[in-house]
Structure formats: structure tokens, C-alpha cells
Task: structure prediction
Amino acid sequence: MTGRAPDESSGASSFQEEAGLHLVLWPHRSLTPWGFVIFIGATAAMLALPMMALIGTAAVWGILPFAAVSLGGVWLALRSNGRGGELHEELWLSHDRIAVTRRAPGEDEQHWEANPYWVRIKLSAEGGPIENYLTLEGGGRTIELGAFLSPEERAALYRTLNAEISAKAGRG
Result:
């Protein structure tokens, strides 16, 4: 992950500083703001097309509220789903400290930190709630990391963190 420009939709970005490693993880966003505009416009056009035959009749006023409610429902559902994409996790790693901050919409910020020397990183290929379940254990707690990433991204994150934690803690 380190040393190359991250892909905008990859779900993670990273950069290495002299003092340590900083990772920012976020869920994949498949619908861009421009895609949202196009989708709502196409939906409105498809709802309007059958009503074109009713223009000039009283029946259009009976159907129009249902079309408006349908379009409003799609709009609200997409906006609600989009707010879930505001979730992100930040990880900082230095030789004497590892810290994770999780920010989710509508929830309090969650913090965790420990000494990297005592941190255990675990990737459960099977048996966890999701495939390649990634956890960090230390400082008296176990936390999950990147649960919203794909299994392949969690495996790559595990390899990166394992190497970095070992190097920072003087284990490797």
C-alpha cells in the first residue's frame, strides 16, 4: 500500500511519514455524485414516460402523486445509503504507539491505542463474522479493523500491518 498513489475507489489510502505510518480506510463508493444525478434523472424520465399519454386528462393528477412519492423514496434511499459511506477508520503507527480512530455517521468517535510491541494482529480466514476478519488485540481490548473492506483488501492490509508492526516494535 505504501509508496504508490491510491486508487480513488480502492477503500484505502496510505502515506508513510518519517515518524510512522498513517492509513485511512473507507468503504468503496460505487455511486459518484454525478452518478446520483444521472440515476435520479433517468428514474424521473422513466416515471414520466407513461404519464405522457395522460397529459391533458384528469387521470394525470391521480397518478402524479404516486410518481412523486416513488421518486422521493428512491432519492431518500440513495441519500441514506450514501451517508453510510461517510464511515472511515484512521490508523497511526509509530515505534511506540499504534492508534485507531473510527468515525461513523450518527455515532460517537471510537478510539483505541496500544504499544505496538504488545499488539497481536489476527486474520481469521474462516470462522469470523466475515471472510478474512481482521482484528487487533492490545491495550486490554480487541478491535476489528476494515470490516467494510473486501476480503482481498483486508488480507493486503493484514500483510502491510504485520510487516510494519513487526518493524516498529523491533520484532522483525
